[in-house]
Design goal:
By secondary structure, the chain is mainly α. Among the domains are: about 120 residues; about 150 residues, Leucine-rich Repeat Variant (Alpha Horseshoe), CATH 1.25.10.10. α13 packs antiparallel against α14, α15 runs antiparallel to α16 and α18 packs parallel to α20. The longest helix is centred in the N-terminal third of the chain and has 71 residues. The chain starts with a helix and ends in a 7-residue tail after the last helix.
Length: about 400
């Protein structure tokens, strides 16, 4: 590329020399032809930067010699034109150098940027390719589910891609075919916790055949798998695993404990009886879980025990009991208030005190008459609690004074 530029510049300089000879010797003028000098000077500055001053010096020399030959002296105007040519060549050369330097810096920055972003680009391209493959695979799995292609879905459960295994297990769970139970049981030992989680969910719809596998899954190292196995077990036939669910109330993970309480509440009468027994367990977490399960169940027979726990010295148990009673109130509606008001006539002081405090805490204004009757009985052990509850309820109900 540099050779043709050099050749063009030589040709232009030669043409300028010939034009100078023609105008200077044959036409006898020293002005017009010098304007042609700026063409090669400008090109030399663009192509060769400051070295353009060589071309300017050559042309100035040609002009100077011709003027000496033509006039025998050197006119000051000739020197001025020469200085202008040299100065122009220098200035254009410096501008060109600055442009070249910036272009080089920009090019180097772009190159370094490409080097730095290349790994990111490769990762993004890999992920995009993986996403496209996933979309194709997911579409295939959806087609298998639609066609009830159980063999294809079971084969997908053994795929090397965890996401495909996950989607296959999810599809089998929605199909709820008993013939796939063994494949889902095997998936419960998958190395990926997400696959184990969705497999446990799928096994919940397989009935009692899955109970033993789900019981093992309740001991999984991943808490997400444990709580999903608990809910699936309650769906599959939790009545056979009440003792195991009670043990889960002592799990190290709060979410697992809460799901165990929900599962027990959903099983029914057998679980309620077990939870009432668990209220006497020596482990605090088990008692809290049992209290929560009784509250979620909405079982009226559990109200006395829950009320008694609201005055427990163990603040965590008392808080759990209040939470459970609040949940019961939302489930049972007006029936809950009636049951609690009746318990104000119990002989057990602990239950009565728990009922008074719960009525005040949950603002059961329907209990105001019953509390006023209880105040008239003059039980000194409860008077302070009754007065406090009445003050809370009267403010809430909009009046301050007891009935006459």
């Amino acid at each position: 590329m540099g050779e043709w530029r050099y050749a063009v510049l030589v040709i232009l300089l030669t043409l300028c020399t010939i034009a100078s000879l023609y105008f200077g010797i044959f036409l006898g003028t020293g002005i017009a032809y010098t304007h042609l000098y700026y063409i090669p000077i400008a090109l030399a500055a663009v192509w060769y930067q400051r070295r353009a001053i060589i071309a300017a010096a050559y042309l100035f020399g040609v002009h100077l010699i011709l003027e000496l030959m033509r006039q025998g002296t050197i006119d000051p105007a000739v020197l001025v034109r020469g200085e202008i040519m040299l100065l122009l060549a220098l200035m254009l050369g410096m501008v060109s150098e600055n442009i070249r330097r910036r272009e080089k810096t920009t090019s180097e920055y772009q190159s370094s940027l490409l080097v730095r972003t290349a790994p990111v680009e490769r990762r993004l391209r890999t992920r995009f390719d993986g996403f496209r493959a996933f979309v194709r695979t997911n579409t295939s799995l959806q087609r298998m589910e639609h066609d009830r292609d159980l063999h294809g879905l079971i084969t997908a459960l053994r795929d090397s891609d965890a996401e495909i295994r996950y989607q296959a297990a999810s599809a089998l769970g929605r199909l709820r075919d008993q013939g796939t139970a063994d494949a889902l049981k095997a998936a419960m030992y998958d190395r990926d916790p997400g696959v184990r989680w969705i497999s446990a969910h799928a096994l919940g719809g397989m009935g009692r055949h899955a109970v033993s596998t789900l019981l093992e899954a309740m001991k999984d190292a991943d808490p997400e798998v444990r709580w999903r196995a608990i809910l699936a077990l309650a769906e599959a036939g939790g009545a056979d695993a009440i003792d195991e669910l009670i043990e889960c109330l002592n799990d190290e993970d709060t979410y697992v404990r809460e799901r165990a309480a929900i599962a027990l509440a959903g099983i029914g009468e057998l679980a309620i009886t077990a939870c009432i027994r668990a209220l006497k367990d020596s482990r605090t977490e088990v008692r809290k879980g049992a209290v929560l399960a009784l509250g979620i169940s909405g079982e009226p027979s559990a109200i006395p025990q829950l009320l008694e726990f609201t005055v427990s010295e163990d603040q965590e148990i008392a808080t759990a009991a209040e939470r459970a009673l609040r949940y019961q109130k939302s489930v049972m509606g007006n029936g809950w208030a009636i049951s609690v008001i009746r318990l104000l006539k119990q002989s057990d002081t602990g239950i009565r005190r728990g009922a008074i405090r719960t009525i005040a805490h949950l603002k059961v204004k329907e209990a105001i008459p019953a509390l006023e009757d209880l105040l008239q009985e003059g039980d000194r052990g409860l008077c302070e609690d009754v007065m406090e509850a009445l003050n809370v309820l009267r403010r809430y109900a909009g009046y301050r004074y007891p009935r006459e």
